[in-house]
Design goal:
Shape: flat
Number of helices: 1
Helix content: 10-25%
Distance between the termini: 34 Å
Radius of gyration: 13 Å
């Protein structure tokens, strides 16, 4: 299984929103790493052009 450190929280699982504000990182669900197909899905280029 492929494991990749979450780029949003830096691997801590917690997002810092300000000096004293924190919340669980929703991209990695507080785990600090993206695993398996989720990592592949998030790393894949996305086509956002209108169809």
């Amino acid at each position: 299984m492929v494991s990749k450190r979450c780029s949003h929280c830096g691997g801590s699982g917690v997002l810092r929103l300000g000096g004293h504000s924190f919340r669980t990182c929703l991209d990695c669900l507080g785990q600090g790493s993206l695993q398996g197909s989720l990592a592949d899905h998030l790393a894949a280029p996305r086509d956002i052009s209108a169809a």
